[in-house]
Design brief:
Blueprint (H helix, E strand, L loop, with lengths): L1 E4 L2 H5 L1 E3 L5 H13 L8 H10 L6 H5 L16 H9 L3 H12 L6 H8 L2 H18 L4 H22 L1 H8 L4 E3 L2 E4 L6 E4 L5 E6 L7 E3 L6 E6 L14 H9 L1 H9 L4 E2 H8 L3 H13 L3 E6 L2 E6 L1 H7 L5
Parallel strand pairs: 1-5, 2-6, 6-8
Antiparallel strand pairs: 1-4, 3-4, 7-8, 9-11, 10-11
Helix pairs in contact: 2-3, 2-8, 6-7, 7-8, 9-10, 9-11, 11-12, 12-14, 13-14
Length: 321
C-alpha cells in the first residue's frame, strides 16, 4: 500500500500540472511497454510500440535495467527541450548517486559511465535516444494526450470547486481512501509511506501507465504523483471524434457553450439570450464557471459583466465558439 501523509500546509500546496509533460509521459509509456507481466489487453499495443522503437532508442534500455529508472529522468518540462534541459542540469552528485543505485555492482555500458563522469557525448546519446523514442511512441498521439489532459484538468478544477479537495483526490483514483490526512492507495507494491511535511504534492495524469501510480519523492522538493487516468488503454493516433462532446461530458453542455461565448464579455442578460436560457440559469452557469476559476465577474453599478479567464481559455480550446 502507498500512504501519502499530508499536513494542513500540504493540502494548501497541492497543484495540478496544467499541461502534459512529454518526457514523463514517454517514460510511463516505455515502462508499460516493457513490463514483464503486462495487462493482457495491452498486448497488441505493447507489441506495436516495441516494434516501432528505432535503434537510436536502444540506450534507454541500458539506462533503466530491470525497470528501475534513475530519478533524474523524472521531469515536468512542458516541451521536450524543457525536459532535456532539466535533465541535463541535474546536480552531478545526484546523477552519480542515482546511476550507482540503479546499476549497483554491475559494470554499466561505456556511455553510461560517461554520464557518471559528466561526458557531453554521453548526454547527447541520451538526448538522441529520448528524441527517437518520443517520435516513435508519442508523437503520433500527442494531440490526443493533450486533449485528454485538458479534460482531466477540467475535471479536477470543477471537482475541487464543487466537492472540495478530499473528495476530488479520491475521485481521481477510485479505490483510494483519504482520512486523518493520509491518502491510501491499496494494492500498490512495494509498500511506501511518504511524509510530505509541508512540501506539497504535484498531480500529473498519465494515459500510458494503467498499472498504478508513479511517485517521485525527492527530499526538499514537492512530491510528484503521476497517476493513471483515461479509459485504461493508451490513446490511438488521431484526435477524438468530437473534442467538444468530451468537454461537454465534463462541464455540461450549457456551461461549455457559456465558456466559449465568454471569449468576449457578456452581461447576464446577453449571455442568457445567446444561450437561449433564463437569466437565472445564465447567472447560475456563470457562478459555477467562476467558482472553478474559469470565468470572472465584474460589477459596474447594477450591471455585471462575465468573461472567461486564461484557465477558461485553456479548457475551451483557445478560441471563441
Amino acid at each position: 500500500m502507498l500512504r501519502i501523509r499530508f499536513t494542513a500546509e500540504d493540502f494548501a500546496r497541492i497543484r495540478f500540472v496544467p499541461r502534459p509533460a512529454p518526457l514523463q509521459e514517454l517514460h510511463a509509456a516505455l515502462a508499460t511497454a516493457v513490463a514483464p507481466r503486462g495487462v493482457p489487453l495491452l498486448a497488441t499495443w505493447r507489441g506495436r510500440v516495441l516494434r516501432s522503437l528505432p535503434a537510436a532508442a536502444d540506450p534507454l534500455a541500458d539506462l533503466v535495467p530491470a525497470g528501475r529508472p534513475p530519478s533524474f529522468l523524472d521531469v515536468l518540462g512542458d516541451t521536450l527541450s524543457d525536459g532535456f534541459e532539466q535533465i541535463r542540469t541535474t546536480d552531478p552528485g545526484i546523477v552519480r548517486s542515482e546511476l550507482e543505485r540503479v546499476h549497483g555492482a554491475v559494470l554499466p555500458p561505456r556511455w553510461i559511465r560517461g554520464l557518471h563522469a559528466g561526458d557531453e557525448a554521453s548526454w547527447r546519446t541520451l538526448r538522441r535516444a529520448q528524441q527517437a523514442a518520443y517520435e516513435a511512441v508519442l508523437a503520433p498521439v500527442w494531440s490526443v494526450v493533450q486533449d485528454l489532459h485538458r479534460d482531466e484538468f477540467t475535471r479536477y478544477a470543477l471537482g475541487v470547486a464543487e466537492h472540495g479537495v478530499a473528495a476530488t483526490l479520491t475521485g481521481l483514483a477510485p479505490g483510494t481512501r483519504l482520512h486523518d490526512g493520509v491518502w491510501e492507495w491499496p494494492g500498490v507494491a512495494p509498500a511506501r509511506d511518504v511524509h510530505l511535511d509541508g512540501r506539497g504534492l504535484i498531480l500529473l495524469p498519465t494515459f500510458h501507465h494503467p498499472a498504478g501510480p508513479l511517485l517521485q519523492d525527492v527530499p526538499g522538493r514537492p512530491a510528484v504523483l503521476t497517476y493513471p487516468a483515461g479509459p485504461g488503454l493508451p490513446p490511438a493516433a488521431g484526435r477524438p471524434a468530437d473534442t467538444a462532446e468530451a468537454l461537454a461530458a465534463v462541464l455540461g453542455r450549457t456551461r461549455l457553450d457559456a465558456l466559449r461565448l465568454l471569449a468576449e464579455p457578456h452581461t447576464t442578460t446577453s449571455l442568457a439570450r445567446a444561450l437561449d436560457v433564463s437569466d437565472a440559469t445564465a447567472s447560475s452557469t456563470a457562478t459555477a464557471l467562476r467558482s472553478a476559476g474559469l470565468a470572472t465577474t465584474t460589477r459596474t453599478g447594477r450591471s455585471v459583466t462575465h468573461r472567461r479567464t486564461a484557465l477558461g481559455t485553456l479548457f475551451a480550446g483557445g478560441g471563441p465558439p
